[in-house]
């Protein structure tokens, strides 16, 4: 929501993209698709997808979209936020996307990784070495 409100409240630093509706739409669809694919994989493995309870995981999902990123649901969210920032055409909103990535990494992902290391040990450590946390980081 901060991206929307910053984009609307501080309209000074703006930009326009060619085909911005199409770009924003594709990013939104990609974000939703990636997140849903991840949720489906969790359901298939009968494990929790609740981020507030990573210690309740009963399986480590490492195939499908998880071969590309360890955090596809967060990647999906980031893509949707990027789509909104691009649609708003706000440079300030655009700058909030990496802020989201940093905050979600520090507050949610790192604690999840600690819990998964405790649960799955060497298997999770190998997964961490073979699959980036984000798409390329």
UniProtKB/TrEMBL annotation:
Listed transmembrane segments: 22-40, 77-110
Entry membrane topology: Multi-pass membrane protein
Keyword Membrane attached: yes
One MF annotation (Gene Ontology) recorded for this entry: methyltransferase activity
Record's keyword terms, sorted: Membrane, Methyltransferase, Transferase, Transmembrane, Transmembrane helix
GO cellular component: endomembrane system
Listed GO biological process terms: methylation
Major subcellular site: membrane
Subcellular location: Endomembrane system
PANTHER family associated with the record: BLL3993 PROTEIN
Name this polypeptide is given: Isoprenylcysteine carboxylmethyltransferase family protein
UniProt organism field: Parvularcula mediterranea
């Amino acid at each position: 929501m901060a991206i929307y409100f910053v984009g609307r409240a501080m309209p000074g630093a703006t930009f326009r993209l060619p085909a911005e509706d199409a770009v924003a739409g594709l990013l939104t669809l990609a974000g939703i698709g990636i997140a849903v694919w991840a949720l489906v994989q969790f359901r298939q493995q009968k494990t929790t997808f609740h981020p507030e309870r990573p210690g309740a995981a009963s399986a480590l999902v490492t195939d499908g979209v998880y071969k590309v990123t360890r955090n596809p649901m967060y990647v999906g969210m980031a893509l949707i936020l990027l789509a909104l920032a691009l649609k708003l055409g706000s440079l300030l909103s655009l700058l909030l996307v990496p802020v989201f990535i940093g905050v979600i990494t520090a507050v949610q992902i790192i604690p999840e990784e600690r819990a998964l290391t405790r649960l799955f040990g060497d298997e999770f450590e190998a997964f961490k070495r073979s699959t980036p946390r984000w798409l390329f980081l």
